[in-house]
Amino acid sequence: MASWWRVFPRAARRYPWPTNLLLYAGLFSAGDALQQQLRGGPADWRRAPRTVLVKVLCDQTVGGPIALSAFYVGMDILQGKDDIFLDLKQKFWNTYKTGLMYWPFVQLTNFSLVPVHWRTAYTGLCGFLWATFLCFSQQSGDGTVKSVFIFFHRKEVGDRPPEK
Ligand SMILES: *[C@@H]1O[C@H](CO)[C@@H](O)[C@H](O)[C@H]1NC(C)=O
């Protein structure tokens, strides 16, 4: 019987996008659940603006870089790349900067505009979008939003190299 650690790398090579998304979504939810567990249940963020700012800051300076590095190196390992640090080296800063524009926005809107009972769904959706972007960056992009537009533009004009 095939074990998951044999099946997974094979699936990751054959279906990189869905597998990556699944993995990331799992890690993302696990992280959020763990955080709530450690805090002893969902906190009332509305009454603690300082705590929110600290959380945003911590996520961007500690959590974000760790998660990004784990993602790029982990994916390279699963896909059996020769240099498992290559994607990390080439794309980390771009991706980090994109995340820096995205996540604080998501978190602050989460805490200030989104009603409590919608927050899980809202951050889940934002996490899903981010996961899609990460997987794209690992496969075909370079961590910038611009690379997404270039990619789809090329598709539209029929994969011709950009003319200058
Ligand atoms: C959104 O808010 C909920 C609780 O109000 C919190 O548990 C969750 O961590 C927040 N999500 C993000 C990404 O900050």
What does this structure look like?
The protein has 6 helices and no strands. The chain has helices at 4-14, 16-39, 49-78, 86-112, 116-139, 145-156. The N and C termini lie far apart (54 Å). It is mostly helical. The chain has one domain. The relative contact order is 0.11. The protein binds 2-acetamido-2-deoxy-beta-D-glucopyranose. 2-acetamido-2-deoxy-beta-D-glucopyranose binds at residues 32, 36, 42, 45, 106-107, 110-111, 116, 119, 123.
Number of separate strands: 0
Helix content: over 70%
Structural class: mainly alpha
Order of helices and strands: HHHHHH
Main sheet makeup: none
Rough shape?
globular
Small molecules held by this entry: 2-acetamido-2-deoxy-beta-D-glucopyranose
What's the structural domain tally? 1
What is the CA-based Rg, rounded? 18 Å
Approximately how much beta-strand content do the residues carry? under 5%
Termini gap: 54 Å
Annotation field: number of helices: 6
* Mean pLDDT reading: 84
The low-confidence runs, each spanning 5 or more residues with pLDDT under 50, are: none
What's the helix and strand layout?
Layout (H helix, E strand, L loop, with lengths): L3 H11 L1 H24 L9 H30 L7 H27 L3 H24 L5 H12 L8
The chain binds 2-acetamido-2-deoxy-beta-D-glucopyranose (NAG).
2-acetamido-2-deoxy-beta-D-glucopyranose binds next to helix 2, helix 4 and helix 5.
